[in-house]
Structure formats: C-alpha cells, structure tokens
Amino acid sequence: MTPKTALLLAFIALKFLLQYFLIIPGYELHRDEYLHLDQGNHLAWGFMSVPPVTSWVAWLIGVLGNGIWTVRFFPALFGALTMLVVWKTVERLGGGLYACLLAGSCTLFSVLLRLNQLFQPNSVDVLCWTTLYYFLICFIQSRDRRWLYGFAAVFGIGVLNKYNIIFAVAGLLPALLLTPQRKLLLNKHIYLAMLLAFLMILPNLIWQYQHNFPVFHHMKLLAETQLVNVKRADFLKEQLLFFIGSLFVIAAGLYGLLSHKPFAPFRVFFFSIIITLAVFTYLRAKSYYAIGIYPVYIAFGAVYIGAKVNAVWLRGVFVLIPVVLFIPLFNVAFPNKTPEQIVANPGPYQKLGLLRWEDGKDHQLPQDFADMLGWRELAAKVDAAYASMPDRERTLVLCDNYGQAGAINYYTKQGVRAVTFNADYVDWFDLTKKYKHLVRVKNWWERGAEMKETGPLFATGYAADSVGNRYSREWGTTVFIFRDARIDINAKIEEEIAEERW
Predict the structure, then answer these.
(1) Cα–Cα distance for residue pair 296/424, rounded to 1 Å
(2) Phi-psi bin for 440: left (phi > 0), alpha (psi -120 to 50), beta?
(3) Mean of the pLDDT values across residues 151-171?
C-alpha cells in the first residue's frame, strides 16, 4: 500500500467516525428524513417533493433493517465518495501527496460534516456536482469521449436525485462560450451525451407529465413560503461559512485558474462559479443549494499551493488551518449539545444566524435541531390513541405535515400508516378502506379550532394527548380522537385530494 493510499483510507475512516461522533443520542432523525424513508415504501419515478433516487436508497435502507445507524451510514458514504472524487481530481491535475493531504483536510473539516449527517438528497447532490466537474476536467485533458458520456450519466443521476444540479450546467454552458473551450460544443459526442442524459431523465419527465408537473407547484410553494424570506446578502455571507477553513485554498484555486499555466485549459471553471453563484443569488436560493460548487475549487487550490509553496512549516500551517477554524464550528454547527445547553448559551448560535428559521425569526434552537426532537414521543402517543379505537381497520390517522406522518410510520409499534394532505402523502391514501374513525394530529397553532371544526362531524371527540418536548418544533402538536363519523370520510378525502392537486 502506497503512502497516498494509506492517507486516503485514513481520511475516509475519520470521515465515517466523525459523522457518527458529532451527533449525541438525544437527537432523533430530521423531519425530512422520515419523508424520504417513507418514499422507499412507495417507489415511483417521481414525487411531489423530490425525484426518485432518494427513494431507491430508502428502499435499500429498509432492506437492511431501517435502523437509525443504517440511515446515517448512507449520507456518510456519499460524503466519503465526495472526498474520494476531490482526491482523484487533485491527482488528475498533477497534485502530489501534499496537495492530496491539503485537499483532504479542507474537504473533511467543512460544512459537509453537517450535510452528510442527514438522509436527504443533498449529499448525493454534492457528490454529483463534484463528479460532474471531475469528468469535465478529464475530458478537457484527454478529449476521450467516454468522459463526456460519464458526464451525461452523472448529470442524469443528479437530476433524478435533485433538480438543483441543472444550475451546475447552467453555469458551465455560458462559461464555455467565454473561453477557447467553446470549440467543445462542436463535438458531436456532446449532443449524443445530451441524448443519453435525456433518456435517463425521461421516466421522471413522463411521471411529471402524468401528475401535471407537481414540481412547479412545489417550487411555487417553496418560493412563497421559504425563499421569500431569504436575503441575497445572507446567501452570500453564508457561502463564506460553509468552507471557512478552506477559503484561502479556494481563493488560490481561482487565482491559479487565471495565472497558473497548467490550469489554462480549465479557465472555464473560473467563469462558471461566478455565473452559478450569480444565478443562485438572483433567485434567492437557499444558501446550501450552492455547496456542490466548492469541492472542485479546493482541488484546484490544493494543487496550486502544492506547486507554489515549498516551505515545510508553511505547508503544515495550511493543512492545520481548516482543522483550527473548524473547532469553533464544532461547538455550534452540530447537534452535539443538549437543547438545555444551547438555550443556556444562545450567543454563539445567534451571532452566526443559526437561530433564524425559515420564517425569518429567531427561535431557541437552530431549526434543524428542533426538527430532530419529539418524533418518537409523537409516534408513541399516536400509537396509544390508535390502540384505543374500536375498529382500527376503519381508523384513519391524518396528520398536518409530512414530518408527523413519516415519523409516526417510522416509529409505530401498532402498524399505523399515517397520511397527510401535505407533500407526497396526498398520493398515498388507502381509499379501499371505508373509514369510520379518525385520529387527528394537529399543529399546535391550529389545535384550538379542531374540536369546533371536526367535532360536530363525529359522535364523540376529544384531545387525547400532545407533544410535551418544548424544544421540539412539534411542541404542542395535539393528538385528537374522533369516533363514529356522521359524514362519508372517504368522500371528504377525495374532495381534499382533488383540491390539493388542483
């Protein structure tokens, strides 16, 4: 085994170790993770919220036992593969052992440690962006058309994982026109590769067409409820935090793309990052949408510094900077402190804007942390309510959001299959059952009107329990029990589904 291979394996092992170490047991899965895990039970070529790749991984997780350890393994794996691709990019650009060490340090001690904790499409998204750039570098170097088809295949997988990767190509195409590499567009294999990508994406496009393109409804809803609260200045500021320990390496890579002669064929990457970030900024994108841009620039910067810096002590300092600057982030960016500890010392979190939720307001915990609490408690209380029903087969468990439904379905001991008119669950109602009773899970801010609105539709009804974890985003979410419907519940469901799809 060569020293370089041994070093790479050490980085990968440390990556997996840190992914599990940086989260304490008191935190559960994130609300989004429960939705994605439930998608594995409803395999399709598309969903209202995301394309299908995440559901395929969720299905595999289910086969492997569906345990929390397994859920967290896969994003860690995708993060390790991202590190591997950065490493191979460094080698492809001519970097030696030191450049690999520097790139490994910068990639490991970055926002990817947080991103790769959650089972969401984002880990695969960053991996696809990084691999896409790597294949383009390989093609520019070799002109071997196989790299073009690899590029197309990665783009196809990327789109089937998350449409966000379209912005990578949206940045690359204009950048190509600004450099001598524009002649690549005359290569016929580019268009054959585009056909390959289109054929890969086609099943999802057909699914979107068959379901009246729910992606546009989802994007519209996202823009109206979340992106409207995103400030462009905050988007740009948060870019600096993601790879704060690597900013000097990324900057060196950008400078090298303009001045380092061996990088001249890759100048397209200098313009690409500017264009892509400009598009994201204009569209008020969430800051993490852009994370996939940066790993390739770490590779460029590491190779440039490795070629220009010879002083041993300075090389050592450059490797340590990401580690040292990671230490303060270690204290605030990960769920490695109890909610009580965070509430007692909110200053560091508030200073970095981590207490600001998507509603634009500050809260007692970071939103992601609050989204990892209270779910097991909610599921247990729904199980108890479900067990008390006289006819479970005719009992509908209806929630207000996908996090509630997904968590209940993940933790249930009673075989509950909760649904909601939110997100993908609108397609998962089992209308073969003739419902007579209802277990209603209601958001805390709407629970006051529930008895007044729903109570008259049933013979009996009452609030059975509620989530008591005050640090959870679901704090106060109430479980209502309604028995013996005076209306046709199935007809009401069909009416609500039709309205939601319209």
Answers:
(1) 34
(2) beta
(3) 95
pLDDT digits (tens, 9 = 90+) for 370-420: 999 999 999 999 999 999 998 889 999 999 999 999 999 999 999 999 999
What pLDDT shows up at residue 358?
Answer: 80
Q: Is the pLDDT of residue 348 over 90?
A: no
DSSP 232-284: HHHHHHHHHHHTGGGHHHHHHHHHHHHH-GGGGGGTHHHHHHHHHHHHHHHTT
Q: Strands 437-442 and 395-399: what pairing?
A: parallel
CA–CA gap between residue 491 and residue 322 (Å, rounded): 59
Q: Which are the contacts of 448, defined by CB distance < 8 A and separation ≥ 6?
A: none
Q: Report d(CA 45, CA 197) in Å as an integer.
A: 15
Per DSSP, 318 falls in state H
pLDDT at position 204, please? 94
**Residue-level pLDDT at 59:** 97
Largest CA distance in the chain: 82
Structure tokens at 148: 């073009």
Query: For residue 252, how many C-alpha atoms fall within 13 Å in the half-sphere facing its CB?
Result: 22
Q: Is 236 exposed, middle or buried (0-12, 13-18, 19+ CB in 10 A)?
A: middle
Read off the pLDDT of each residue in 141-164 and give the average, rounded to a whole number.
Answer: 95
Q: What is the 3-state secondary structure (H, E, C) of 77-100?
A: HHHHHHHHHHHHHHHHCCCCHHHH
- Number of Cβ atoms within 10 Å of the Cβ of 114: 19
Can you read off the two tokens belonging to residue 455?
């109570």
If DSSP codes are grouped into helix, strand and coil, which group holds residue 458? Answer: strand
pLDDT at position 355 over 80? yes
Contact 137, 33 (CB under 8 A): no
User: What one-character DSSP code corresponds to residue 426?
Assistant: G
Q: Report how far residue 220's alpha carbon sits from residue 235's, in angstroms, rounded to the nearest whole number.
A: 20
pLDDT-based confidence at residue 176 (cuts at 50, 70, 90)? confident
